[in-house]
Write a structure and sequence with these properties.
2 helices; rod-shaped
């Protein structure tokens, strides 16, 4: 897989929206960047969810001790 370059991400952010990227290598790099962003967002959400599940389980344990 192609290496992720922060410079490419910056160029994409500032590029005109009607530009055409025909080169297969450029298309692969763009897809990789978008896939990586999506993957990182998904991982952050999963970590957040797991954290709150663990917190809820811990609270349930403490509630059961008090009963």
């Amino acid at each position: 897989m192609m290496s992720y370059s922060p410079n490419v991400a910056n160029v994409l952010e500032n590029a005109p929206r009607n530009a055409q990227y025909i080169s297969p290598s450029i298309q692969k790099e763009i897809l990789y960047i978008f896939a990586r962003r999506h993957e990182l967002q998904y991982v952050k959400r999963m970590i957040f969810l797991i954290f709150f599940i663990l917190m809820k389980l811990e609270m349930n344990k403490k509630e059961n001790k008090w009963k």
